[in-house]
Structure formats: structure tokens, C-alpha cells
Amino acid sequence: MTAELTGLRVVPAAPEPLGAHAVPGGVTFAVRSAGATDVALVLYRTGAAEPFAEVPFPPECRTGGVYAMTVRGLDPDGIEYGYRVWGPDGPGDRFDPGRVVADPHARAVGGGGQRWGEQRQPFEGFRYRSRVVADDFDWQGDRPLRLPVEDLVVYELHVRGFTRHRSSGVASPGTFAGLADKVDHLVELGVNCVELLPVFEFDELANDRYDPVTGQPLWNYWGYSTVGYFAPKQGYACGDAARELKSTVRALHAAGIQVVLDVVFNHTAEGNDNGPAISLRGLDNQVYYLLDEHGGYRNYSGTGNTVNANHPQVVEFVLDCLRYWVTEFHVDGFRFDLAAALTRGEDGTPLADPPLLRAISTDPLLRDTLLIAEAWDAAGLYQVGSFPGYDRWSEWNGAFRDTVRRFVKGDEDVGPDLVCRLTGSPDLFPGRGPLASLNFVTAHDGFTLADLFSYNDKHNERNGEHNADGETHNHSWNCGHEGPTTDQEVLALRRKLTRFALTLLLLARGVPMLVAGDEFGRTQQGNNNAYCHDDELSWVDWDLASRNRDLVEFTAALIAFRRAHPALRSGTFDGVTSSLSGRVAGLTFEVPGDAVFLAANAHWEPAWTPVPAAPDGMEWRLFADTSGSRAGVEDRITLEPRSAVVLEAVPKGETGR
């Protein structure tokens, strides 16, 4: 059947797939709303303030709660669109036919803002317009890499911040293409998995605070505030975002580097009761959000709302999204922000068997996809070691971070915990093994590695919150002087502690994660919550890579050493022996044919440790002394203050090579 509506020819369409798709002779639109009574498609010429057509979905284009029709004669390249939705007005309902809302399955977001920092056009009530995107990219045979988890070394980075600094030397700073231009650095370093902070479409201008030092507006820089779950961030591209991101993934894969996306399904950009109705709120508020008995938003994310992640419709939405990024963008995995919130039921109580996590874990299309959980939320639910992982998930190991920091700075009685963490945290992952532990000392959220040993306290004054934001308990140490100094003794100590921490991180069992720039001393001047700064405070300064070339080479050597020794990458807790004395810990990692001995002294005085017997037919060879004072191996070794010594077992007679 064909209906003539507002001058456009409309025919019923299949209810799947959802979203807008160009078809021969027009565009098919399909949108879902369980609670709506009527829906109309609103069409705009690109950039126009007013719509040129509004097309109600006729009854024959509705199947249950899915509205689907094909509009004939419509050019997909010149339009933006949204939906006007009618529905009941009970507690928890937010239907408002006076507003136009975006398509949650839209593959691009218009309405202006196509360049980073560009103001969106002030269209009343509808700034985030949906666009139609063609799927015509030539992957040239590329596929997700499927690297063994035990071989991964993860490198977390912010796409814009990675190359925006004037020192980056790339042709298109601050973009996906700029990241692709830095592949050589990643290859030289030896990392084989990049974890990208959010690249789904968000509004970087969605921050109403000002920098009290500069007087400039602050930013929504990190992007943990999703506007479009199927749309790559256009502000990260110098051309078409989808094509540029796909080209970057292809280039990274060609270099043997996996791509993991940091995804935010625990909350959306729609905020609290006073927030905007961008998309999900206007389509099915009671479906997509956790609400209290009065229809108000439960807030376990710290952002004003929490997604109702275990509702069947939301489970389908998240699966659709993950499948899309795996199939259309060839991504290798996902890191789930505040993933503990995804275990909560409708009343906020954590579920033992959350439907969403089970569905993700058992989905055939996602079978080979890396899944990483930040296993806590902003309301105090902490599930590291108890996250419902279905033998599929790794977890950010906050205990590893805190233990290594405390040990390196010399806290008492940390040795037993350190041995546990370096072994792969058997206390946390007894049934899953070390590979469930994503080990890190620093992350985007917190001090950089250089700042960890340069500041006792956070310095977030420029965030406009009177230094009240950000983590207070950082287990950091300024080595005797707060912030920058010319004191050579302090600087030498900071360099020593940096190498100490890197050694413990990169030689521990589990999957290690570095943060971009930590390999050459990037600083945020003591700011441990730089989510709102799009300036040199957050950007990676590549001049440091030249000035601290020795640290880059040291980090690369550790990664290469890790790759050469299966004893460090084992997926079991077996084959580890340890010794402890005060602030000194010694561990031997061993598998058939390979062994590594690591001795660490966190004391400010020298200490000694016996060297265990090497495996039969082998002898120990020195790989590294982070103090720089050792040249050989004895039956017992003296450990300089705040340092580590690493020995590798080699066949007898090879130690002189």
C-alpha cells in the first residue's frame, strides 16, 4: 500500500533493522517505543531551522511498538531527521510532542557541531539531529585481530589529546587520522592494544563551569556523556568520521594493534529531572532509565541518571550497539565504564545473574570480543573479583593500582599484597586466573605516572569546583617537593620510582595497561580529574618523548622482555614462588623452559635478598636493575633503595652473550 502524506510517498517497511537506511528509491526509517501512542517522522534540510515535512506513521506502518516505513523519493544525503512522539503523561513518563527527539540508532549526529568546539545551531528543542549514513567502506580484507589475551599490552589514550599538542607533528592534530599517524610510536613501544576513551558522539560543550584561573569555559573533554551510541564523534575527524575511524582501525590492525572502545552504557547525556530530552527519554523514559516510585531518576552513575540496563528492550539496544561496532568498525573489544551499574535491577539492587551481562557474554557475534569491566559504580557498588563475568570478562584491578602505589612509595606491610597482585590476584580471581586482571597503576582518571611521584595532593583548582572534585586518597608521594623543581636529587628519585612502578606493572601476571604519555613523563600539573580541560594540561606533549628518550626505551625494553617470557604471561597462578622480608619482596615466575626472578626493595635503605636456584640446565642473567647500579649476578644480591632487579633464566653458557 502507498500513502500520500505531506507530499511524500510512504510504504510500510520491515520493523528491522532499526534506524534509518538508504534503500533504492528512498530511505527506510524504523524506530521503537513501547509506550508511545503515535509517532511522526520530522524531516529537515541539512542545516535548516524548520522542517520541510512531518510524516505521521500510518497504522499500517506500525507493528506493536515498532514504527517502520520507507519514504520514496527522499535524498538521504541532504536531510536530517528526528521523531515527534505522543504518549501518556503518568509518573515516569516524559513524552512531549512539543519536542523532536533524535533516533537512538542514528549513525551520525548533525545539527551543527561538526568540528570540535563548534557551537551547535540553536534550534529550539532539537540540537542533535539524526543523519543517514551510507555503508561503502573498503576494508581491504581487514578483520578483528583476535590476539591472545595473555599477549596483550593495553595503551589507554584520548583521541583528541593524543595528537592535539603542537609538538605531535601529525598532519591532522586531534583526530582519528592523527592517531593513525602515530602508529610507528606504538609499534616501537611494543603495545598491541589501544583502548580509546569514548568515541561515540557527545557534546564537548556540555559544561557550564569556567576555569577560575583563565576565565575560559570548561569542556566535556573526556566524552563520558553519550549523545549517539551508533555515531562516531564527528569532532574527532577532519572529514567523514565513520570513514576516518574505519581507516584508523584498519591502519592499527595492519600494525598488529587491536582497538578497544571505552563505552558508556551506565548513563546518558540526558542527565537528571532537569536535563534535556535528547532521545531515549522522549521515546521510552520508563524503559530506558531506573526510576524511583515517584518517577524520579535513580542516580548510581554520579551524572543524574542510570540506564535500566537489564530491561529486555535495553538489553537488545546494547547488543545492537556492540554488534554494530564489531561488524561495521571491526573493533576488537570494549571497556565498560562503571560496569557495576549494569548489574542493577529496576529497584537498584544488584542482580546475581544480570540479563545484560549474560546476553553480552553468550552472544555468538561477540564471542571473540575482548570484554573489560570497570567493576564499580559511583554509588559505592564495588565488584572487583565478584563481577558477574561468565568466564568472559576481565576487570580493571583497582587493588593492583593501590597496592603497587603503596609499595613503591614505601608504606609498611604491603609486601604480601604486592606478591598477590604480581601473581595475578588469586584472592580476587581464584576461578578465572590472572588474565581476568587488567593491571594498571594509572588511568585517564587520576594522576599521571609522573604526577604520582611529584604531588602529595591533587591540584584541581582549575576545574572550577574549589578542588573538591577528584580522588583524595591517591597513595602518591612528591619525593620531598610538591610539583616542579630543579632539585636534582628529587628529580633523580622521581625517575627511579617511575622505573620501579613500570617494572612492577609490566612484569606482573595479568594484562598490563599503560596510559598515553606515561612512557615519557607526561604531566597534568597535579590535576587528577582533567575531564574538563581541552588544553595543554590534557594534551600529550610529544617534546617529552625526545627529552625523556631513555624512559621510552626502558618501557619498550620491559614490554619486549614480557613478550619474550611466557612465565610472565601465564594464564594460571601456578609456578610462582615468593619470599618476603620487611619492605623487600622476591618472586620467581616459572613455566617449563622459562623462568624470571624479580626482587623489589621499597625501603629507603639498601637491602639484600638471596637468589634462588635457576632451573636445571639454566643460569641467571641480569635483565634490569632500576637503580642502574648492577652489572652481574651473584648468589645473593644487594638491592639499592626503592628499586627492582630482574633476572632471566638462560641456558648455561649464554650469560655472556
Gist of the model:
By secondary structure, this protein is of the alpha/beta class.
Key descriptive features of the protein:
657 residues; alpha/beta; Immunoglobulin-like; 8-stranded parallel barrel; 6-stranded antiparallel sheet
Question: What do you see in this structure?
Answer:
This protein has about 650 residues and is an alpha/beta fold. Among the domains are: about 130 residues, Sandwich (Immunoglobulin-like); about 80 residues, Immunoglobulin-like (Sandwich). It is built from 13 helices and 28 strands. The strands form seven sheets. Strands 12-13-16-17-18-19-20-21 form an eight-stranded parallel beta barrel. Strands 1, 2, 3, 4, 7 and 8 form a six-stranded antiparallel sheet that branches. The longest helix has 19 residues.
The main sheet comes to: 8 strands, parallel, barrel
Query: Can you tell me the CATH architecture of the domain at 3-131?
Result: Sandwich
Radius of gyration from the alpha-carbon trace, in angstroms: 27 Å
Percentage of residues in strands: 15-25%
Read across the widest sheet, the strand sequence of neighbours is 12-13-16-17-18-19-20-21
CATH topology of the domain at 3-131: Immunoglobulin-like
User: Low-confidence parts, pLDDT < 50 over ≥5 residues?
Assistant: none
What does the average pLDDT come to? 95
Work out the helix count: 13
- Helix content range: 10-25%
- Briefly note the structural class of the backbone: alpha/beta
Strand runs, count: 28
CATH class of the domain at 3-131: Mainly Beta
